[in-house]
Amino acid sequence: MRILISIILTIFIGFNIAKADIKVVTTYPYIASIVKEIVKNKATVESLAEGNLDPHFIVPKPSLVVKLRNADLIIINGAGLEIGWLLPLINQASNPKINPSSSGFLDLSQFVNLIQKPETVSRSMGDVHPEGNPHFHLDPYNIPVIADVITNKLCRLDVSNCKFYESNNTDFKERWKKKLKEWNEKLSILKGKKVVGYHKLFDYFIERYNLNLIGTLEPLPGIPPNAKHTENLINIAKSQGLDYIFQDVYHSQKPAKFLAEKTGVRMIILPHDVGSIPEVKDIFGLFDEIVRRLTQ
Amino acid sequence: MKKLFFAGLLCITFTASASDDIQQLKEELKKQQEIINQLQEKVKELQKQQEITEETKQKLNQLHQSQIDKLLSNPFSQAKFVPDISLIMDFSYVSRNLTDVTYKAVNIPGFNHGLFHSHGGNSEAPYNAERGFNFNYSELYISQAVDPYFDLVGIFHLGEGSFEIDEGYFRTKSLPFNLQLKGGKFYSKFGRLNEQHHHVWDFVDAPLIYRAVFGEHNLLEKGAQLTWLAPTPFYLMFGVEVFQGDNENNFNRNGFLVPNTNPINTTPTDYLKISDTKKPNLYTFFIKPSFDIGNLSILGGFSYAEGKTRIDHLEDETPHALTGTTKIYGLDLTVRYSIDSYRYITWQSEYIHRNFDGVRYGYDNANNLITSFLDKKQAGFYSQLVYKFDQRWRVGARYDLINKNDVFVNNTDSNQPDNLYKYSFMIDFLPSEFSRIRLQYNCDRSLFLDGERKPNNEIILQFNMAIGAHGAHGF
Are B276 and B255 contacting, i.e. CB atoms less than 8 angstroms apart? Predict the structure, then answer.
C-alpha cells in the first residue's frame, strides 16, 4: 500500500509541477485557431475534436477527459452542436473550473445572431437544434465577433496578459478585414447562384454571399439521403436550375455524385473546419480554401 | 408652435427671394402655401389620432381599475426549472426452443438457482422471459443540477406491476484535485459493462459471466463512490466504493437463524444464530487506464470487490444457507477503432473471477443439520466484436465461456460442469439516435436442469426507443 501511495505521489508531483501558462481547450479546431491568434505563446491551446470528422458525432474517448482535467478555460461552439458528446467528458474530468456555470466556460453561440431558429421543435423533424443553426463560424463576418468575445474572456481570466491579448486581437482583426475584402471581391460572382448541400452546414456562408439554397441531400437534418428524396431534388434542380453541389468532407459522397451525374452540375468538396483537409491549417486557410474551391 | 415655425420659415424664404422676379416669387409663394396646407392637414390628422389614443388609454385605465381584483399573476411559477426528463421503453419478441416452464426451471450449475430466482421475495422475471411478446421495461430518467455543487440523477424502472428506483444518486461537481464523490443507489463502476444501462448494451442480454456471478441486476448497490483522475499524460482513473452489500448472489448483510432440523419436514427445537455482517459490508476498488494510438482507443480496467456473505435459502424446497466471504476480481479491455465519423469496430472483453470461502448449512435425509465447509473458485469471460459498418447499421458477435467452476464441499470436489458456453450474434438498425431495432440469435449451452444440460436456442427481436431530454452517453 505504501509503495502504491508513493508511486501515485511521484506521478502526481512529476506531472503537476505548476505551469504558469493558462490552458485553453476548445471543442473544435477553428476555435483553437482563433485562440492561437490571440494568445500566441502565452497559453496552451488544444482542440478536443478533429476537423475532419462530423462535428455532431465526436467520440467521447477517455483521452479527451485528460485534456479537460487541468484546463482553465473551455470554449465551445454551442447551439447544441456538442450536445451528443461533451457533457460526459466534463462530468468525468471533475474539474470545477470548466463546469458550464463556471467562469472557465465560454459558449460562443451566445454572442452570435443565429439563423433558422425554429418556432417549434419535434424529433419528427429530424435532428433539429432548438437554438438555431449552429454552424455560424462559416460566415466570415462572425469571426471577428468570436475573436472579441474570446479576448474579453481571456482578459478576465489572465489579467496580466490582457494588453498582449488585446493588441494581438486588434492585429488579427486588421488582417481579417484585409482578407475579407479580398474574399468578398472574389465571391461576388456567387450572388444568386443556386446550391444544394448535404446538411444545413454552409447556410451562414450561403446567406452572407447571397447564394440560394434550393435543397439538402438529407431529407431531414441527421437523416441519411434516400432515393425518393434525391429523385425530388433532381427534379427541382432540373426545373429551377442548379449551379453548385456543396459536399462536406465527412459524409458519404455517393448521393452528391449521383446528383452531379444526373444534373451535370459540379460537386465541390468544401472544408468546414481547420484540419478538415490537409491544406487548411488555420482559420485564414479555411476561408482561403473555400474561396479557392468556389472560384477556380 | 408648429405654425409659428412655418411662418418663420416663410419669412426666411420671402427675404431670400426678395431680389428675384415677382412672378417667380408668386409661384414660390403658391408652392409654399400648398406645403403649408398639406402640413396643416397632417397635423390635424395627428391630433385626431392623439385624441383617439387618449380615449383608448382612458378606457383601458377604467377597465384596469375595475378589474384589478381579477388580474392574476403567477410569481411563484418555477416552470423554467423543469429538469431533463426522458422515457426509454424496451419491447421484444422472443422465439425460444425451451418452453417457458423449462426456462423458468433451468439454472447455471454452481452459480445460481435459475434466472428467475430471487431471495428477497420480489421475484422479478428477467428481460425477455417469455416466448412471444415481452414488455421489458419503461425507464424514466430525471436529472438536473441541484446547485453549483451537485448534480442529481433519478432513474425509475417501471415494470408492468412494479415501480423501482433503479438508480438515485448525487454527484459532486466542484471537489478539488479532480476528485468526484457519488452517493446514493447506483451501479458500481466494477468492470466495464456493470455501470452501463440496458439500453446502451451492445447485445440484448448481459454476458453469461455477469448473469452467473451478479444475477439479473448486475452490481446495483446503495453506498458511496470516490473517483480520482490522476494527473498523468494518459487517462488513469482510480476509484473506491463502499456499499451496503445488497447483491443477493454474493453478499447480503442480514443474519438469520439456522434451524437444527429441516424446517420443511420437521418442527425445529433449536436455532443457530448467524449475526449480521458489519455494515456497510461491500468494498470495491478499481483502476482504469486508457490511451490512444492514432484512431485506436484502448480502455482497460482492473476491479476488485470484497464483502461478507449471508445467503439465506432456508425457505427453499431444499433448505440451505451460506455464510462466508466473497472476493470478486475483474479484468476488462475495450479496443475501439474509429474508421470515420460513422463507422467503427470495437472489441470488448471481460474476465471475472469469484472466490467464496465459508460454511454451508444444509440437511441430510434424516432432516439433521449438516454444516460443511464450502469453497468456490469460479471464473469466466466474454469477448465481443461489434462492427458499425454504416451510419445506421451494426453487427456483432459475442462468445461467452465459464471455464472454471470448482466447488469444494469439505475439500471434496463436487464436480460441477466447467464448460458452460454461449454464442450470440446480433444485427441492429438505428433509424436515428433515439431508436434501435435489433435482432439477436443466442446459442446457449450454460443452462442445466437436474444435472442435465438443456441447450437453449433463441431469437430475440428488440425495440428500444427514447423520448425527451436524454443526456449524451460516455465512451
Answer: yes
* Statement to judge: residues A30 and A165 lie in one domain: yes
Tell which of B169, B177, B234, B235 to mutate to test the A interface (max A CBs under 10 Å): B235
pLDDT tens-digit series, residues B102-155: 999 999 999 877 777 654 444 567 899 999 999 999 999 999 999 999 999 999
pLDDT at B22: 81
Query: Can you give the pLDDT at residue A78?
Result: 95
Q: How many CA atoms lie within 13 A of B411 on its CB side?
A: 0
> Contact A222/B312 with Cβ under 8 angstroms?
no
A10 touches chain B (CB under 8 A): no
Q: What is the CATH number of the domain that holds A229?
A: 3.40.50.1980
Q: Which residues contact A97 (CB under 8 A, 6 or more apart)?
A: A71, A72, A73, A103, A104
Q: Across the interface, which of A54, A91, A96 has its CB nearest the CB of B341? A: A54
Which residues, listed in sequence order, are joined to residue B184 by a DSSP beta bridge?
A: B169, B223
- The per-residue pLDDT for range A237-282, each reduced to its tens digit, is 999 999 999 999 999 999 999 999 999 999 999 999 999 999 999 9
Is residue B400 in a domain? yes
A254 and A111: one domain?
Answer: no
Domain end: A139, A161, A181, which one? Answer: A181
Confidence class for position A20, pLDDT limits 50, 70, 90: low
Q: Which residues contact B348 (CB under 8 A, 6 or more apart)?
A: B192, B193, B202, B332, B333, B334, B335, B383, B384, B386
Distance CA B461, CA B441 (A): 9
Tell whether B74 is covered by a domain: no
CB within 8 A of B200, min separation 6: which ones?
Answer: B473
Parallel/antiparallel/unpaired status of strands A212-216 and A194-197: parallel
Evaluate if residue A11 carries a pLDDT over 80: no
Within this chain, do residues B43 and B109 fall inside the same structural domain, yes or no?
Answer: no
Q: Do A87 and B471 make contact, defined as CB atoms within 8 angstroms?
A: yes
ipTM: 0.89
* Residue B57's pLDDT band (cuts 50, 70, 90): confident
Query: Which residues, including other chains, have CB under 8 Å from residue A199's CB and lie 6 or more apart?
Result: A216, A217, A218, A221, A222, A248, A251
Which chain B residue is nearest to residue A65, measuring alpha carbons? B235
Tell me whether residue A250 is exposed, middle or buried, using C-beta atoms within 10 angstroms of its C-beta: 0 to 12, 13 to 18, 19 or more.
Answer: buried
Whether residue B196 is found in the same domain as residue B333: yes
Question: Is the minimum CB–CB distance between A124 and chain B shorter than 8 Å?
Answer: no
Task: Give the domain CATH number at B121.
Answer: 2.40.160.10
Residues with Cβ < 8 Å from B5, sequence gap 6 or more?
none
Kindly report, residue by residue over B305-356, the tens digit of the pLDDT.
999 999 999 888 889 999 999 999 999 999 999 999 999 999 999 999 999 9
Q: How many residues make up chain A in this entry?
A: 296
Query: Nearest CA to CA, how far is B472 from chain A (Å)?
Result: 5
